[in-house]
Design goal:
alpha+beta, 33% helix, globular, five-stranded mixed barrel
């Protein structure tokens, strides 16, 4: 994908407990009528959707929750409709964006004017100067954390992917808090994301080794 192909306005899907990173693909089950409308409109145009975390819960059902500034735009790669009229899609993360402002419209779902300037590197397929050997300790700590939380990861399969795909996939699937995942999403590049993962893991390691009352 080229910079010139990026849209200026993106329909956004504010979803709690969910973050998508560039170069990762995730399944989504769409059942709310407003988001079924959004998927239908997206399929008729560029197939883009902006995934973003709500910053706060709405105080009442008539008030839209405030959003984080940074989200990730994905492209619908596959689409199925089941017998109940619900959609099952696969969304591939392409590039992060920053919200400039929200667009007022008559649509049931939300749209935002966005800027991609800070995240053009997400579109670059070049290899970063990191090696798997640089990450062995991080992977070891991550593996320990995953296993303690009951997560199962196919580590050999991950090592066959590119390094940025692997780090983004682990960051997205990790048992970190939503705030920690948002920090990872906003990390400018892979080197910084690796550092942030290491910093976050240090706090978990501290809890594991120094607080024996925590199971």
């Amino acid at each position: 994908m080229k910079k010139n192909d990026l849209p200026k306005i993106v329909s956004v899907f504010p979803l709690s407990n969910f973050i998508i990173f560039p170069k990762t693909t995730v399944p989504l089950n769409i059942f709310e009528p407003r988001y079924i409308d959004m998927i239908n409109d997206s399929m008729r145009s560029n197939k883009f959707i902006g995934m973003i975390q709500p910053r706060t819960s709405a105080e009442d059902i008539n008030q839209a929750p405030k959003l984080h500034e940074i989200g990730c735009m994905g492209k619908i790669m596959s689409f199925k409709e089941n017998d109940n009229g619900q959609f099952l899609i696969e969304l591939k993360g392409l590039i992060r964006f920053k919200i400039i402002n929200e667009i007022k419209s008559s649509k049931q779902y939300r749209e935002c004017e966005v800027n991609f300037t800070d995240f053009y590197d997400d579109l670059d397929s070049k290899k970063e100067n990191l090696q798997f050997s640089d990450l062995k300790l991080i992977f070891k700590d991550l593996k320990t954390l995953f296993e303690k939380r009951g997560f199962v990861i196919n580590w050999k399969a991950l090592e066959k992917q590119s390094l940025d795909e692997t780090i983004n996939a682990l960051a997205m699937a990790s048992p970190f808090t939503l705030e920690e995942k948002q920090i990872l999403l906003e990390a400018k590049n892979l080197e910084l994301r690796k550092t942030k993962i290491s910093e976050i893991l240090t706090t978990y390691s501290f809890d594991n080794y120094n607080n024996t009352t925590v199971q």
